[in-house]
Amino acid sequence: MADKFDVIVIGAGPGGYVAAIKAAQLGLNVACVESWSSDEGKQVLGGTCLNVGCIPSKALLEISHKYEEAQHGFAEQGIIANDISIDIAKMMERKTGIVKQLTGGIAGLFKSNGVTSIYGHGKLLANRQVEVTDNDGKTKTYEADNIILATGSRPIEIPPAPKTEGYITDSEGALEFTEVPKRLGVIGAGIIGLELGSVWARLGAEVTLLEAQDTFLPGVDQQIAKATLKEFQKQGLNIVMGGRVTGAEVKRKLVYVSYEDSKGKQELMVDKLIVAVGRRPYTDNLLAADSGVNMDERGFVFVDDHCKTDAPGVWAVGDVVRGQMLAHKASEEGVMVAERIAGHKPQVNYDCIPNVIYTAPEVAWVGKSEEQLKADGVAYKVGTFPFAANGRAMAANSAVGMVKIIADEKTDRILGFHVLGPSASEIVAQGVIAMEFGSSAEDLALTCFAHPTLSESVHEAALAVNGGAIHMANRRKKK
Q1: What whole-number distance in Å separates Cα of residue 63 and Cα of residue 98?
Q2: pLDDT tens digits for 30-52?
Q3: Which end of the chain, N or C, is more open, meaning fewer C-beta atoms within 10 Å of its C-beta?
Q4: Helical spans, DSSP H, in 115-256
């Protein structure tokens, strides 16, 4: 029967499309349901990440970084480039082109792997049945032995700053500006707020970020976070900590933002306002009352360590379940679930999932911070090495930041790996691999790294854990 599958995946984002492809590769008959539409009314695959998240934002971050470097970094390297200007329309055209290429690529992968793509909104019914509603409101029901929920997340909206076309937008709208705002406000100085704020600051906007929390990047190792804050402030980002927004009103083609901080009531006047206070699971009309799947009080689908829901044969992955809202975490969960459906027994190592902030310099980390280890009562030792002492970073005019490695005091096993600096998103992978294999700091210290490379800073930080760094003075050991 054509309407019966081994696996039906609801959602074609990084968790869903990867799960569908992997399940098909394992010999299962797979369908993937996706409701996202293009402006032309055609199905779009890839979810938030490819369409309005990771990929388009990185395109704008890359372009704006090159523009900013050409304006302010070329001259001291002997490159004279006068009258540099930015063509916003061309920049957006390039971003859109990259997105179309990648989303089209997923459609090609579905075809080559034999995944059936179903266009419409999927809703889980009882007994592993999925009701799909198309654009015309017509419904059709499919069934499968296993269902994977991978519907992702959407930006959180806040009552004090409701979306207002042309003035107040979320992270998705911030990727579509047609011109550089003179003054830009951003509510939230987390990963998304910092990335979007830095894009438009590099292009010439005067940017103010209002962060309700008193601690900058509380989830990041605070030595790294403090150095990051100092660098962003040097770049001209105005970051207000403890700034709680109480209202936003559009008057005379400007947005007046009311907030309170340690000094009392304040007002900020901007041309555009971005609300970037986080994301919430997207479960709108996803579950029938008798589906058997339970959610917690925040709307996340409840799952066990292997992404099983409370309903037999129903799984859930990615932003719709507990844990970090990261595309690569969703993909790994998608692969794990597909493998488990096929009878294998893999699991995701949640202790080794890297985090990245794609600003310039980049910030990346995996494992525990000093603050977390102190709270857990774990004895540890630390090695750091600055990019200011790294020849390749100096040659690239990118000698900001450091590599920091935290190891267990007794066993020397690496517990945390933190990077602020050039190519941090790539360098952190060395920490992920090391930790995945249970590496000690000494293992990295005994490894030969190519010279000159940015990665030598990893080598030196590992040496520094036990007081043996070569290219900087080591802390004297207490006698």
Answers
A1: 13
A2: 999 999 999 888 999 999 999 99
A3: C
A4: 191-202, 222-234
| pLDDT tens column, 66-81 | 999 999 999 999 999 9
Model pTM?
0.96
Task: State the Cα–Cα distance between residues 63 and 358, nearest whole angstrom.
Answer: 12
Rounded Cα distance between 275 and 193, Å, is 8
Residue 108 marked as a ligand binder: no
Task: Give alpha helix (H) positions in 342-440.
Answer: 370-376, 391-395, 424-436
Task: Indicate the domain borders of the chain.
Answer: 4-155+280-348, 168-277, 352-465
Q: Which residue from 267, 96, 259 is spatially nearest to 183, judged by alpha carbons?
A: 267
Instruction: Please tell me the class of the 4-155+280-348 domain.
Output: alpha beta
Angle between helix 16-25 and 327-341 (nearest 10): 30
CA nearest to 210, candidates 156, 266, 251: 266
| C-alpha 413 chain-centroid distance | 27
The encoded tokens of residue 385 equal 């090495």
Measured distance CA(166)–CA(184) in Å, rounded: 13
Hey, what CATH class is 352-465 in? alpha beta
Residue whose entry in the numeric block shows the structure tokens 């998705």: 172
Residue 416 is assigned to a ligand binding site? no
Query: Where does the pLDDT of residue 476 fall: very low under 50, low under 70, confident under 90, or very high at 90 and above?
Result: confident
Is 121 designated active site? no
**Identical topology for domains 4-155+280-348 and 168-277:** yes
For residue 308, count other CB atoms closer than 10 A to its CB.
16
pLDDT class of 1 with cuts at 50, 70, 90 = very low
Q: Give the number of other CB atoms < 10 A from CB of residue 355.
A: 18
Distance CA 228, CA 249 (A): 32
Asked whether residue 193 is marked as a ligand-binding residue, the answer is yes
Pick the CATH number of 168-277 from 3.50.50.60, 3.20.20.140, 3.40.30.10, 1.25.40.340: 3.50.50.60
Instruction: Select which of 121, 306, 451, 459 is catalytic.
Output: 451
Q: What is the pLDDT of residue 478?
A: 60
* Count of CB atoms situated within 10 Å of the CB of 256: 16
Average pLDDT over residues 271-295: 97
pLDDT at site 475: 80
- Do residues 166 and 355 touch, judged by C-beta distance below 8 A? no
Question: Residue 162 is encoded by which pair of tokens?
Answer: 């409701």
Q: What are phi and psi of 227, to 5 degrees?
A: -65, -35
Beta carbons within 8 Å of 409's beta carbon, 6+ residues apart: 379, 380, 381
Residue 372, number of CB atoms within 10 A of its CB? 15
Q: Tokens standing for 320?
A: 């719709």
Query: If you average pLDDT over residues 284-301, what whole number do you get?
Result: 96
